[in-house]
Specification:
The complex is a heterodimer of chains A (about 250) and B (about 400). Chain A is α/β, with parallel strands linked by helices and about 250 residues long. Chain A has one domain: Rossmann fold, CATH 3.40.50.300. Helix content of chain A is about 30%, strand content about 30%. In chain A, strand 1 and strand 2 form a beta hairpin. In chain A, helix 3 packs across helix 4 (about 120-130), helix 5 (about 150-160) runs parallel beside helix 6 (about 180-195) and helix 6 (about 180-195) runs antiparallel to helix 7 (about 235-240). Chain A is globular, with a radius of gyration of 18 Å. Chain B folds into two domains: about 5-50 and about 270-405, no CATH class; about 95-230, no CATH class. Chain B contains 13 helices and twelve strands. Chain B has helices at about 5-15, 20-55, 85-90, 125-130, 145-150, 160-165, 210-215, 235-250, 265-310, 310-320, 325-360, 370-395, 400-405, and strands at about 60-65, 70, 75, 95-110, 115-125, 135-140, 155, 175-180, 180-190, 205-210, 225-230, 260-265. A six-stranded mixed beta barrel of chain B has the order 4-5-10-7-9-8. In chain B, strands 2-3 form a two-stranded antiparallel sheet. In chain B, strand 8 and strand 9 (about 180-190) form a beta hairpin. The longest helix of chain B is centred in the last third of the chain and has 44 residues, at about 265-310. The chains are: A alpha/beta (about 250), B alpha+beta (about 400). The interface of A and B includes residues 58, 86, 112, 114 and 115 of A.
Chain lengths: ~250, ~400
């Protein structure tokens, strides 16, 4: 399988209040096409910094990062923006949908910044993406008229619409109740089954059971990197949840 | 990122905040509308002054005797005898002079049968009609032959006709008396009404200057010369040429003062214009300040908008918007506000000018340049005041922006 992400000896240092803070102290791993990786760690472990670098929002102080075979370190700010637009799909904890905007318009947004996509193609692809997350009936619902789970589905559709090489999810279930969390996790597992490469950053250790690989960070180092040959099914967990009868 | 997509994004964002967008626009609307209205009022009053002055005559130059000392005693202008018929003839040769007429005036009682009326007889040449913009309505003007022979003929203004012929008889061919001198009426002038000073321009009797000089006043000098410059812009040069000729003819030493005075219509209109120009500048300044305040309003609202939408900006950046895309989006929002405010402002300004004209009866005149100017100014205002907030948005760090609460 093709290597989507390859990082070597990645270091990132910040200067905070005159003191040097080492967020990442030499992190190396590679992720192949079709993997569903959870990256875990407590706050301060460097997982947010790692996610920012993987998402081309930040650049490492040293070390190399190859995304889809291209080195990100040497890219300019604008080149990184284009890379984010074409190769990465972000899913955030707080959805980050545009307010008072319909689902379809939210999903179309990344394609608006890609002048190669025509208005017609944009609409078609947005509809297809919303269909893939099970929201084909809610194309024209505004973001504030939808539940948290639905909003997160719209956000996932937005991450899918540009057909990225990798989906980066940052605590994507963090704001949702257990039931909805499992349904979103189910969606990620479905996408994974269809061949999507997913990196899911979380502080919740339970989620490791549902991914195919788990990387744990502590104080800027990788302390474990384990494959999970038989991930648990989110669908089963979802169906075994006690239903609310209130 | 193409322009259509940018416009779409900017319009969408503005649409989400209609009231705020309108209130911001209001600053520009009031600014542009006041600039247009003020300039229209200023230009309107200028035009009406210009029209009033130009009805007096065409590029008129008036030469009168003046500043004459005889044995250390200053004399009144009426008694001065410095201008002669030969002066008039010499000035007629100058290239900048389109028309010229000497002027001698005598006041007295006009009599026609039982009716009489006090008026003045102006002794002139046929050129006088052109200089003062008079037209002969009935009959004909006297000719050069009448001047040579000092014929006892005259042309009457409407006021004089109304007083001497109250029953509406045709005055042409009738003989009236001016004092003791009988004169044949050969023409009637078209009515010009009162001038800007409130003087009746129809209260006039015109006769050959030779007739007035020889038969009425019995003098051998003339009281003044009226001339008309070929072009308004040549007036100054023509006045200089006239001055030179007259000084030479009067044999004045270089250090001596002129023994005549020259006034021009242009001088008068410049004097009147400078007052109204100052008014216009003053009004335009006030209006310009309100446009500036409107611009600051745009900047303020854009600045608030950038802060409020920091998360949105972070999101847009994370899904691939470049700095230039964000900059363009906010700049276009500012320009849309200012340009549509400008267009509405122009409409409101035109409407307000019209209302001023209809309700207050002030003359207004909207010039194309004032519309183009205010439109250009408000577009520039949008770009200028939108630039800083847009720049701020474009320079945000996407990581910080995404985390912004």
């Amino acid at each position: 399988m093709k290597e989507i992400i390859k990082i070597e000896e990645l270091r990132r240092e910040f200067i905070v209040g005159g003191e040097k803070v080492k967020a990442l102290r030499g992190v190396s791993f590679s992720i192949r096409e079709g993997e569903f990786v959870t990256i875990m760690g407590t706050s301060g472990s460097g997982k947010s910094t790692l996610l920012n670098i993987l998402g081309c929002l930040d650049t490492p102080t040293s070390g190399d990062y190859l995304l889809d075979g291209v080195s990100v370190r040497s890219m300019s700010k604008n080149q990184r923006a284009v890379t984010r637009n074409r190769k990465i799909g972000f899913v955030f904890q707080n959805y980050n949908l545009l307010p008072k905007t319909t689902a379809i318009e939210n999903v179309e947004l990344p394609l608006l910044y890609n002048s190669q996509v025509s208005a017609k193609e944009r609409r078609e692809r947005a509809i297809a993406a919303l269909d893939a997350v099970g929201l084909s009936q809610r194309l024209n619902h505004k973001s504030n008229q939808m539940s948290g789970g639905q909003q997160q589905r719209v956000a996932i559709a937005r991450a899918l619409v540009n057909d990225p090489v990798i989906i980066l999810a940052d605590e994507a279930t963090g704001n949702l109740d257990t039931r909805t969390s499992f349904s979103i996790l189910m969606l990620f597992q479905e996408l994974h089954a269809r061949g999507r490469t997913i990196i899911f950053v979380t502080h919740n250790p339970e989620l490791a059971d549902y991914s195919s690989r788990n990387i744990v960070l502590r104080d800027g180092h990788i302390i474990s990197d384990t494959l999970n040959p038989a991930p648990a099914s989110a669908r089963e967990a979802f169906e075994n949840l006690p239903t609310d009868n209130d | 990122m193409n322009i259509a997509n940018l416009l779409k994004i900017a319009l969408k964002a503005l649409n989400n905040n209609k009231l705020r967008c309108f209130l911001t626009m209001l600053g520009i609307i009031i600014g542009v509308a006041s600039v247009i209205t003020m300039l229209a009022i200023g230009q309107g009053s200028k035009n009406s002054i210009k029209a009033q002055i130009s009805e007096m005559g065409s590029n008129m130059i008036m030469i009168h005797p003046g500043n004459m000392q005889r044995g250390g005693v200053r004399q009144s202008a009426d008694d001065m005898q410095t201008l002669e018929v030969s002066d008039y003839e010499a000035l007629g040769e100058l290239p900048g002079v389109a028309a010229i007429s000497p002027s001698v005036t005598s006041g007295g009682q006009l009599v026609n049968g039982n009716n009489n009326y006090p008026s003045s007889v102006y002794g002139v040449t046929p050129d006088y009609l052109e200089i003062r913009k008079f037209k002969v309505k009935d009959g004909a003007m006297f000719t050069d032959q009448d001047i040579k022979s000092a014929s006892k003929v005259c042309i009457l203004g409407k006021t004089v006709v109304d007083n001497l012929f109250p029953n509406g008889e045709d005055p042409i061919g009738r003989v009236i008396r001016f004092g003791k001198i009988p004169m044949t009426v050969i023409g009637v002038l078209e009515s010009k009404g009162t001038n800007s000073m409130g003087m009746d321009q129809d209260d006039v009797v015109i006769a050959p200057y030779t007739t007035v000089m020889k038969r009425i006043l019995a003098i051998d000098y003339i009281q003044g010369i009226f001339a008309s410059a070929t072009d308004e812009n040549d007036t100054d040069a023509t006045i200089e040429a006239i001055t030179e000729v007259l000084r030479e003819r009067h044999r004045l030493k270089p250090e001596a003062d002129n023994d005549f005075e020259i006034r021009s219509q242009q001088e008068l209109s410049e004097m009147m214009n400078s007052t109204s120009d100052m008014m216009t500048v003053l009004l335009a300044c006030i209006a310009g300040i309100s446009l500036l305040v409107g611009g600051i309003g745009i900047m303020n609202i854009m600045y608030v908008s950038v802060t409020e939408r920091t998360r949105e900006i972070g999101l847009r950046m994370s899904i691939g918007a470049r700095g230039i895309d964000i900059l363009s989006q906010f700049l276009i929002e500012a320009i849309i506000i200012s340009v549509s405010g400008g267009i509405i402002g122009i409409l409101v300004g035109v409407l307000a000018s019209w209302l001023v004209n209809v309700i207050a009866h002030w003359p207004v005149y909207i010039q194309a340049y004032s519309v183009i100017l205010s439109f250009a100014v408000c577009t520039v205002t949008g770009i200028f005041f939108g630039w800083y907030p847009a720049q701020k948005a474009a320079n945000l760090d996407p990581i910080e922006a995404l985390r912004y609460e």
